[in-house]
Amino acid sequence: MPEPVETYEPDGIDYGWVMQMTFVTTITIGAPLVALLAFVTGVSLPTWSSRASFAIRIGAIVWFVTAIAVFLYARAHQTPET
Questions:
Q1: Which of 12, 14, 30, 47 is in Cβ range 3.0-4.6 Å of 62 for a Cys bridge?
Q2: Please, are residues 66 and 19 in contact by the beta-carbon 8 Å criterion?
Q3: Any domain includes 67
Q4: Whose CA is closest to 39, among 29, 51, 56, 47?
């Protein structure tokens, strides 16, 4: 039986997986974290523009930290080269 066309074996780190996991992890963990930080820090967010600005500033940091963590996880758990 021929091998399916959809088969993919990345050499080293699968960057597609890293990007997908970064997105999913940031949404599921980052969004509640940003909301919690807004509540805990007591920052005054009276307008929608101030709320959006706060979410973008904190969200960028969360996204960056998540991306680095997922990349390091992928690098540590990649299949060895044969």
A1: 30
A2: no
A3: yes
A4: 51
Asked if residue 22 is part of any domain, the answer here is yes
- Residue 59 included in any domain: yes
C-alpha 81/C-alpha 4 separation (Å) is 22
Tens of pLDDT, residues 24-59: 999 999 889 999 999 999 889 899 999 999 999 999
Q: How confident is the model at residue 13 (pLDDT cuts 50, 70, 90)?
A: confident
* Per-residue confidence (pLDDT) for residue 24, from 0 to 100: 95
Tell me how many domains the chain contains.
1
Alpha helices in 1-82 (DSSP H): 15-25, 31-41, 48-76
Q: How far is the C-alpha of 69 from the C-alpha of 77, rounded, in Å?
A: 12
The model's pTM is 0.76
User: Does a structural domain hold residue 4?
Assistant: no
Domain region containing 47: 15-76
